Every structure is written in structure tokens, then in C-alpha cells.
Amino acid sequence: MGTVQPQKEHQESTTNLTSQNWMERGQRVLIPTYARQPLVLVRGQGVRVWDVEGREYLDFIAGISVCNLGHVHPQVSAALNRQVQELVHVSNLYHIPNQIELAERLTDLSFAERAFFCNSGAEANEGAIKLCRRYAYERFGPERYQLICMHNSFHGRTLATLSATGQEKFWQGFAPLLPGFAFVPFNDLEAVAQAINPSTAAILVEPIQGEGGVQMPAPGYLEGLRQLCDRHELLLVFDEVQTGMGRTGKLFAYEHFGIAPDIMTLAKALANGLPIGCLLATDQVAQVFGPGSHASTFGGGPVVTAAAGTVIDIISQPTFLAEVREKGEYFKTRLQQLQARHDLIKQVRGLGLMLAMELDRDGGPIVLACRERGALINCTQGNILRFLPPLLVTRDEIDQFLTILAEALKAV
Ligand SMILES: Cc1ncc(COP(=O)(O)O)c(C=O)c1O
């Protein structure tokens, strides 16, 4: 405890190191919070990534729905290069033109009138939870603070967002969690209506549950939540950290449903790989936050907002979004054709390029078989394969991927 350690010799030469070398070094020094795949990726271009040994992979997970414009997008890289020559950081003690322009774009393109920037999805949701509490406190008094959240949801790993996440496996060993969260089954409007009581301030929901296995909202469900919120003067919060930024074929998933939330959170793909989070709200809700009520040192800095401004200009183009919908339909139809040939596939579901295949068994061997054949996918909830390719994936690349997936399904 507290003794001075002799300087360690970490700085081996990094040339000629194999994947195995890197994995062993990582295992020695990193806190082992991830069950990482045995892969060391060092280069990316579009829908492809390469490992240390030069092996090529089709990336159908895109950093978990982050690199929606693929790896090393030329326009995003150019915007970053320009900005890092000018100014990297000043903090929110000052006004930041790129941040203001990004807030203007996001509010022009959504229901929202105001934006706050932070650095991750969890942080955006923390901000949303605080905003709900402050709004309810100002309007209705201190007895109103509870958020109704959904079973199987995922909102992040900070203590507040973990407390809002409806999956007990993530809570293990972190008690006591934050009070003020109630849980009901996803897609059960009656359960939400029953759960509303005088302490309820808001309803927090992912329009499509991502980590929970690409679980789709039942017809009328999100609209029903909107009605309940209106009837009981509650705030409706959509966590669009995963579903936002064109992933479902609309810029924001809520646009599919003809309703809007009062608060929305974004992160992941907003800056195509640089850390960013965003809290968006109507003017009426946002005005309960004043100077000092919330802050972030790095939030909305010049570099990350330069990238995000470029990302949103590209993704918000109607033709770009129409192509996402069209390619998503094609991909889904082809996955359904695979389902017809393989009994182990229980269901194919999703929207746009947020697709999943539920299996009757553990999906790990298929993830491995795909990787061995040069394609990266993810398995969530043990048996649900998740497909989240970059949105600029071509039909040809979808076909290449499907050939690999078909072989992997045959092999297991
Ligand atoms: C819907 C949703 N909300 C929040 C988060 C947390 O985001 P982050 O890992 O950037 O904190 C995630 C991450 O997977 C997510 O999918």
C-alpha cells in the first residue's frame, strides 16, 4: 500500500508484436471488465477492419453501432484534421462555435429545442435522469421523483443508469442502487398504468431495446406511453443512444411512430467513433436547468463536435436514410430466407440496419465461426445474434456477409 514501485519495463517495441503478444500484455495490466474476443484490430476502412497479422474482417457490429459511417470516413477525418490544427479544448467556460452549430442541427432535425453535450451514453442518461427529477421538483415538489423503467432495458454502467437498467445481472455486488426507479415488463402498457403513482415523474424507455436483444415495441406501445405521460403530466424519455443516428432508417427511431418524447439521449454514432453524448429536450423542460445544475469539462468540445457536425450532415440526407431502409429490408429478407432453412433460428427481427436473429441455443459458436471466416458480429443475451453494420454497407457486402453467416450456421 502506497509504496513506491520500481519503474516497470512496459515499453517493449510495438513493431512485430503478434495478437498473442498484445493479448498477454493486456491481460497483465487492464482491469478485466470485458470478455474480449481474441482479436487485436489495428486498421479500418469503410466496412472492413484488419488485425495485427493483416487478416481482414467484415465489420457487422461497427463498434456496437458507433461507426455508422464506417471506419475512417474521409469527410469525418478531414473535419477532425482541420479542427485539431485550430483548437482542441477550451471547456464550457467559453462559447464553442462547433457545439452551437451541432445543437442547431440536432434541434432543427428533431422535436427538441435545446441540447446539452457530454461524453457517453451513460452520461447522457444521467443528465436525463437529473433533468426529470429537477423538472418534477420544480413543477410538483419533492415527492415526485420516480422513473418507470423497463425490464430487459440497458441505460449504462454509472450508478444512476445502472439503477435505471432493468437487468439484475448487471446489479450484482453494487448495492445499494439509487432509489427512485420502478420496473415493468417492456411492451406492457397496463403494467405501466398500474405503476404510476404520486411519486412518478417520468417514463424512460429505449424505442427498440438494443442490448436486450433488439426487442421491438409492440404496435401502439410507444404511442400508449405518450398518452399515459400526457394524461398524468409525466415526462417521456427516449434513450436513442443505440437507435439514433440513422440506425433504424430514420434519423431517430421515434420518427417511425408518429410521436415524440420530451427528452431524448444520443451517443454512440453521433461522432462516428469519438466519445460524445447528448441530452435533447423541449424548451419547457430544459429551462429547469440553469447555470450550475449540470456540467461536463469535456462535453461538446471543438473536436468531437466538428466530427459530429459532419456525421449529422451526411446521415440526415433523405436519400441516405432511404438507402438504409432499403438495404435493411433486403438484409432482413435474406436473413428470413436463412431462417426458413435452419431450425435453430427462432426469429429474425429489427428495423433498418438494426437487426437480430434469435437462436434456440448459445450464439457464441456462431460468432466464433463467423470470425474464423472473416466477419464480426455480436451475441447478446446469450442467444441473440445482433447485426449492426455501418450504414453505408453495400448490398454486395451484405451478400458477402450472408455467405459467411450461412457457412457458419452450417458448421455449428
Ligand atoms: C440504449 C443504450 N443506452 C445507454 C448505453 C450506454 O452508453 P455508453 O456505453 O456510451 O455509456 C448503451 C450502450 O450500449 C445503450 O445501448
Describe what you observe in this structure:
The protein has 412 residues and is α/β, with parallel strands linked by helices. The protein has 2 domains: 19-72 and 325-411, Alpha-Beta Complex (Aspartate Aminotransferase, domain 1), CATH 3.90.1150; 87-315, Aspartate Aminotransferase, domain 2 (3-Layer(aba) Sandwich). Helices cover 37% and strands 17% of the residues. A 7-stranded mixed β-sheet has the order 4-10-9-8-7-5-6, sandwiched between helices. Strands 1-2-3-13 form a 4-stranded mixed β-sheet. It is globular. It starts with 18 loop residues before the first helix and ends with a helix. The structure holds pyridoxal-5'-phosphate. Pyridoxal-5'-phosphate binds next to helix 5.
Brief rundown of the structure:
This protein has 412 residues and is α/β, with parallel strands linked by helices. The chain is 37% helix and 17% strand.
- Helix proportion of residues, in percent? 25-40%
By secondary-structure content and strand pairing, the structural class works out as alpha/beta
CATH homologous superfamily heading of the largest domain? Type I PLP-dependent aspartate aminotransferase-like (Major domain)
Q: Beta fraction of the residues?
A: 15-25%
N- to C-terminal separation?
49 Å
Domain count: the total is: 2
Order of helices and strands: HEEEHHHEHEHEHEHEEEHHHEEHEEEH
Q: What is the name of the CATH architecture of the largest domain?
A: 3-Layer(aba) Sandwich
Query: What is the number of strand segments?
Result: 15
Largest sheet: 7 strands, mixed
CATH topology of the largest domain: Aspartate Aminotransferase, domain 2
Instruction: Note the total helix count.
Output: 13
Shape: globular
Instruction: Report the top-level CATH class of the largest domain.
Output: Alpha Beta
Strand ordering within the main sheet = 4-10-9-8-7-5-6
Bound molecules: pyridoxal-5'-phosphate
Low-confidence stretches: none
**Whole-number average pLDDT?**
96
Radius of gyration: 22 Å
